[in-house]
Amino acid sequence: MGTRGTTMRRTLGGLTAGVVLLAATPAMADSPAELISSFRLKHGEVRVVRDATLDRIAMDQARAMAAKDDLSHDALGPFNRRVAPAGAGRAAENIAYGYDNFEKTLGQWIDSSGHRKNLLLHNASRVGIASARNASGKRTYWAMVIAGDYEPKGKGKGKGKKDGEPLVAVKREPAPASKPKPSNCHVKLLGLCI
Prior knowledge:
Blueprint: H1 3-24, H2 32-42, E1 49-50, H3 52-68, H4 79-83, E2 90-97, H5 102-110, H6 113-119, E3 124-133, E4 140-148, E5 188-189, E6 192-193
Parallel strand pairs: 1-3
Antiparallel strand pairs: 2-4, 3-4, 5-6
């Protein structure tokens, strides 16, 4: 056998070793978004995908709770203000602490009626998930933000909303006012123009 035969055996040997190695490797666990989507699909809702903005919002919340070692939706301020950059028409947040892995945390949320409603937020399409450890490293805090796409004003106002559906109105900052008109006042004293 020449060089070609040796090269062929080495290539086949390498391929065989690679296939055996892949077969012996345990399957990777589903991602958090896939796990949430699977749960949602079983309950008639649509799939969600990870969203970088929601991931950042969730991470900021998880870090704030870990820094304060306090499980609180307000650890970093009101939710509607924190979620505004996502541009969502509706959004909800789940928080937890204790478990080191997402699968167990998700199970905890599924078993809680309020958290379960958030996971099943109608027509949600995006999700952000994050965790952070407290200073001692003994407690893991989780935050999940799930959101639906922006709904234009007036659409469905009060109509069709499911009773008890978790809904957080996202406050938008008002548009900046037009330029102030120039004033002929040289001095303004007690509301008088002089």
